[in-house]
Specification:
Blueprint (H helix, E strand, L loop, with lengths): L15 E8 L3 H12 L4 E5 L14 E4 L10 H18 L4 E2 L3 E6 L11 H12 L4 E3 L1 H7 L9 E6 L3 E4 H14 L3 E4 L3 E7 L2 E6 L2 E10 L15 E12 L12 E4 L8 E4 L9 E4 L18 H12 L6 E15 L6 E5 L2 E8 L6 H15 L16
Parallel strand pairs: 1-2, 1-12, 2-9, 5-14, 12-19
Antiparallel strand pairs: 3-8, 4-8, 5-7, 6-7, 10-11, 11-12, 13-16, 13-17, 14-15, 15-16, 18-19
Helix pairs in contact: 1-5, 1-7, 2-5, 2-7
Bound molecules: flavin-adenine dinucleotide.
Flavin-adenine dinucleotide binds next to helix 1, strand 2, strand 3, strand 13 and strand 17.
């Protein structure tokens, strides 16, 4: 008589169950992971690369930050809180992350019908006055005499916010990730999330190195967001950042002028220029905007040709900025992810109520990232947080 054979027991790898899973650890994901871990949540974060890196939307050293946010008064509490947080994070990591030396915005005099940048100086002045933020308006002649490198036209108006400035974007991402790890978050770099599923009523993040279930998931995938959600609402575009050599770099000292933004009648005439240097690159960072060529992070052309550099210099730089040579010492491709109304999208995933998506770029998101990350972390922890409802999907 043969004895019964023991049945083979197959042990399935246990699925890790976290309080919060964060997909994407750039500006927003790093902020969420840090604050959630600091609040005591069990956090797992994933990034296909190791941020800060040059493939998404948060590189090229610096970002403009303005407390008087001409894009809308509802943004002001977020940037104000971000400034506080960058000071705190800077102190905790022994880094200066925020340089609020003041900045200039320039727009055509008279009424514009451009949705994105129309009447930017007046809009900013209204927000500043409503929020008690210092903001001065200068004549073109005053601006030219105070800031000789900025070739303001007589048909333009100028605003200066003394509390505006520059945030060291890559350092902010790195500092938040360091603090997240120190607070106990498990961060998995080089780990690509391939999708979401559900198990036992919870969302599950699927990755090449195993699945992780969580009570709540935040997707902060930047320019990769359309692979997860809202493909019809999000548009990814290629943007180029250039660093041009200056005749005399001393005249671009950031403590004199951190940045100038030119909001022109037509979108493709937008120009941003930064004081210099901020660290590694001894040249002046300049960038425009374009919304004609859409792309994806995989398909985008990351090379910048000599012809593209020369055309940008002739059309955009030479007429508006004095003392810059055509010698471009570095150029870098960066990605914008815009919603259809150029504001942010922060809401539940269309198919999962316990998954929050945050697509907060539209070319102006960094300045709010620390505070939005904190708000999302506090929401996941069931705590009071800044009101995120202006960014709901219902407005579309
Ligand atoms: C040229 C340029 C200039 C800008 N200027 C300003 C400015 O002056 N002021 C301002 O406030 N804002 C500015 N912005 C906007 C601001 O930089 C963005 O709002 C912000 O960086 C977006 O951060 P993010 O976290 O959404 O994206 P990212 O920082 O790109 O992070 C997304 C992360 O998700 C990861 N990821 C994606 N898919 C997956 C996946 N499947 N699995 C795992 N990981 C994944 C990526 O690797 C990436 O690290 C600018 C943007 C650009 C491009």
């Amino acid at each position: 008589m043969s004895l019964p054979q023991p049945s083979t027991v197959v042990t399935m790898p246990a699925v890790r169950v976290a309080d919060l899973a964060v997909v994407g650890l750039g500006a927003f994901g790093a902020a969420v992971a840090y604050h959630a871990a600091a609040l005591g949540l069990d956090v797992v974060g994933f990034d296909r690369h190791r941020p800060p890196h040059e493939f998404g939307s948060s590189h090229a050293e610096t970002r403009v930050t303005r407390l008087a946010v001409g894009e809308g008064a509802h943004y002001v509490p977020f940037v104000q809180r971000s400034h506080e947080l960058w000071r705190e994070i800077g102190a905790a990591t022994d880094t200066v992350l925020l340089h609020d030396y003041g900045g200039l915005i320039i727009a055509p005099a008279g009424v514009s019908d451009d949705d994105r940048w129309g009447n930017f100086v007046e809009d900013t002045a209204v927000v500043a006055s409503g929020a008690g933020i210092e903001f001065e308006q200068l004549t073109a002649a005053d601006a030219r005499s105070r800031f000789p490198n900025v070739l303001v036209g007589d048909d333009e108006i100028v605003g200066r916010e003394p509390t505006a400035g520059i945030v060291m974007a890559e350092k902010v991402v790195a500092a938040q990730l360091d603090l997240a790890t120190a607070a106990g978050a498990e961060l998995r770099f080089g780990s690509t999330v391939s999708g979401l599923s559900r198990s036992k009523g919870r969302p599950v993040v699927r990755t090449s190195d195993g699945d992780v279930a969580a009570r709540h998931v935040v997707i902060a995938a930047g320019a990769w967001a359309p692979t997860f959600h809202d493909v019809d609402q999000l548009c990814v575009t290629r943007q180029v950042v250039f660093w041009f050599e200056a005749d005399d770099l001393e005249t671009w000292r950031p403590d004199q002028l951190s940045f100038v933004i030119w909001a022109r009648k037509s979108i493709d005439e937008y120009l941003g220029a930064f004081g210099a240097p901020w660290g590694g690159i001894p040249a002046v960072k300049v960038l425009g905007e374009q919304f004609v060529e859409t792309t994806t992070p995989d398909a985008v052309d990351r090379t910048v040709s000599p012809g593209e550099i020369a055309a940008f210099y002739e059309r955009m730089v030479k007429p508006r900025l004095a003392g810059l040579t055509p010698n471009c010492v570095k150029a870098s491709v960066c990605l914008y992810t815009n919603t259809t109304d150029d504001h942010f999208l922060i809401d539940s995933h269309p198919e999962h109520l316990d998954v929050t998506v945050v697509s907060a770029c539209s070319g102006h998101g960094f300045k709010h990232s620390a505070a939005i990350g904190e708000a999302l972390a506090r929401r996941a922890a069931g705590q009071d947080h800044l009101d995120l409802s202006p960014f709901d999907r219902s407005r579309f």
